[in-house]
């Protein structure tokens, strides 16, 4: 297999082939999902919640995300490594976005960056793309703007569908290589997917998007909290890890570990 590039993702859309994105924040998740054939590894600002234990994506910083992106880009042999630009690191101006994106590319080995927002982000997408930095846009529900959007809510309902389409088209025209749509009605997402030349990536956006993305701790059941409707749990890692850790505790306390097999004779 060859390294996935943005043009690979475009060719897959052109051929009507679906592709996949999963979050990854460290060596073993990156290597495992790469081996599984996941086309894009997203070092999401969801690391704020899923790595650093914050309650939202707002607190995580560029300096906290860079080492995670570095670990993933070192470990991914085939997947394209996509770095999320965190809250406050790109909204101020296209120049701020450029400075932040360059750090992710130079210091951490990212192949592309993702940023949230619609029409207001067109200048950012344009400058980065012109500078040689592939940009994935993110519209619909955008967690960094939760205080503006009134919490976690489906976007693009009713009249919002036309707005979603307008934003997607503007971001495509600005040079985005893909558009993530989060928590939008499936018919609205299908309409955007049909109207765009570039691939769409859905999370809670129905089956007609060109690609799908999930957060790995949700998808593999490490996160046991109430999952949003769009999460499908493919494994129950929480139970696997909990039982193993309990067994270890019992073994040590009962003297069953380490046995002779796990010890050095002399
Ligand atoms: O940060 C993240 O994990 C994301 C995906 C849910 C799209 O932005
Ligand atoms: Na994100």
UniProtKB/TrEMBL annotation:
Which keywords annotate this record? Cytoplasm, Magnesium, Metal-binding, Pantothenate biosynthesis, Transferase
Q: Which Pfam families does the record cross-reference, listed alphabetically?
A: Pantoate_transf
Keyword Metal-binding assigned to the entry: answer is: yes
Q: Which residues bind 3-methyl-2-oxobutanoate?
A: 45-46, 84, 114
The record's listing under CDD domains reads:
KPHMT-like
Quote the subcellular location field of this record: Cytoplasm
Q: How are cofactors bound according to the entry's free-text note?
A: Binds 1 Mg(2+) ion per subunit.
Q: Which residues bind Mg(2+)?
A: 45, 84, 116
InterPro entries found in the cross-reference section: Pantoate_hydroxy_MeTrfase (IPR003700), Pyrv/PenolPyrv_kinase-like_dom (IPR015813), Pyrv_kinase-like_dom_sf (IPR040442)
Pathway info: Cofactor biosynthesis; (R)-pantothenate biosynthesis; (R)-pantoate from 3-methyl-2-oxobutanoate: step 1/2
Predominant location of this chain? Answer: cytoplasm
EC numbers, comma separated = 2.1.2.11
Q: Which reaction does it catalyse?
A: (6R)-5,10-methylene-5,6,7,8-tetrahydrofolate + 3-methyl-2-oxobutanoate + H2O = 2-dehydropantoate + (6S)-5,6,7,8-tetrahydrofolate
Recorded GO molecular functions are: 3-methyl-2-oxobutanoate hydroxymethyltransferase activity
Q: Which residues form the active site?
A: 182
Keyword GTP-binding assigned to the entry: answer is: no
Q: What does this protein do?
A: Catalyzes the reversible reaction in which hydroxymethyl group from 5,10-methylenetetrahydrofolate is transferred onto alpha-ketoisovalerate to form ketopantoate.
* Subunit composition and interactions: Homodecamer; pentamer of dimers.
| NCBIfam families found in the cross-reference section | panB, PRK00311.1
Q: Family membership, please give it.
A: Belongs to the PanB family.
Please identify the protein, giving its name as recorded: 3-methyl-2-oxobutanoate hydroxymethyltransferase
Organism of derivation = Aeromicrobium wangtongii
Upper classification of the organism: Bacteria, Bacillati, Actinomycetota, Actinomycetes, Propionibacteriales
């Amino acid at each position: 297999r060859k390294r996935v590039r943005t043009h690979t993702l475009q060719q897959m859309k052109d051929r009507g082939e679906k592709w996949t994105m999963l979050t990854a924040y460290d060596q073993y998740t990156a290597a495992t999902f790469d081996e599984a054939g996941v086309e894009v590894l997203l070092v999401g600002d969801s690391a704020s919640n899923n790595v650093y234990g914050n309650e939202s994506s707002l607190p995580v910083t560029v300096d906290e995300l860079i080492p995670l992106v570095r670990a993933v880009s070192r470990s991914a042999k085939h997947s394209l490594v996509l770095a999320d630009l965190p809250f406050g690191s790109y909204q101020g101006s296209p120049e701020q976005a450029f400075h932040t994106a360059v750090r992710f590319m130079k210091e951490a080995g990212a192949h592309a960056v993702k940023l949230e927002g619609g029409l207001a982000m067109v200048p950012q997408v344009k400058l980065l793309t012109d500078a040689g930095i592939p940009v994935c846009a993110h519209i619909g529900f955008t967690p960094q703007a939760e205080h503006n959007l009134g919490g976690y809510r489906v976007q693009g309902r009713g009249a919002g569908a036309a707005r979603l389409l307008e934003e997607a088209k503007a971001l495509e025209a600005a040079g985005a290589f893909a558009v993530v749509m989060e928590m939008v009605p499936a018919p609205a997402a299908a309409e955007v997917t049909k109207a765009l030349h570039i691939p769409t990536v859905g999370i809670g956006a129905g089956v007609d998007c060109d690609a799908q993305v999930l957060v790995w701790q949700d998808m593999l059941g490490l996160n046991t909290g109430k999952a949003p409707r769009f999460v499908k749990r493919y494994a129950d890692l929480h139970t696997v890890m909990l039982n193993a850790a309990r067994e270890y505790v019992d073994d040590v306390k009962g003297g069953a570990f380490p046995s002779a097999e796990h010890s050095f004779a002399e």
